[in-house]
Amino acid sequence: ASPDERDAYLNARNAAFPESPWTRDGLDYFMTSPHWAVGTTFAAFDGSYLVGNVMVYWDPNRVSERRGGYTEEIFTLVPWRGRGIARCLIIRGLEYLRAHGLHEAHLQVRATNEGALGLYTSLGYRVMSETLHLAREISPHSVPSQR
User: Fold this and answer.
1) 28-47 per-position pLDDT tens digit
2) In sequence order, what are the beta bridge partners of 105?
3) Confidence of residue 96 (pLDDT cuts 50, 70, 90)
4) pLDDT at 67
5) 47, 85 contact by CB (below 8 A)
């Protein structure tokens, strides 16, 4: 809740996901959303140092027969991986969602993240859909001409 805690979270989260860093504004925006109002985070610490985390939440405005929540922003920093931290945090998150009447937990993961995929499938997650994300360099000499 404090600015120092938010900075500690961002530092750890961005160390885990350097290819897609969050800003303080982005985190603050998420923390004012309806999703965060019903969600929480489970975190692992080594002393006062944040080493792992999972956020769990749902859309309180979405009403359906099978209510689904999200287990997102899952990470364990490299020196602490392989110790069961992420597994423990995810299980705690799933228990939280179940205790709040949710029936499913969703997450997104890169198809190339084999370690995470192995962990998630071992916890009972299954592939529901696949999305391709394409990118192209658009430097001055790389854009094709119209013919």
Assistant:
1) 998 898 988 999 999 999 99
2) 69
3) very high
4) 86
5) no
End-to-end CA distance of the chain: 57
* 49-58 and 40-46 beta bridge pairing: antiparallel
Which residues, 6+ apart, have CB-to-CB distance to 37 below 8 Å?
60
Partnered with residue 108 across adjacent β-strands are none
Residues with Cβ < 8 Å from 145, sequence gap 6 or more?
none
The model's pTM is 0.84
Q: Three-class SS of residue 54?
A: strand
Between CA 86 and CA 127 the distance in angstroms is 19
More confident call, 30 vs 86: 86
SS3 content of the chain, % helix, strand, coil (to 5): 35, 20, 45
Q: CA 13, CA 20: separation in Å to the nearest integer?
A: 10
CA atoms within 13 A on the CB side of 4: 2
For 135, the 3-state DSSP assignment is coil
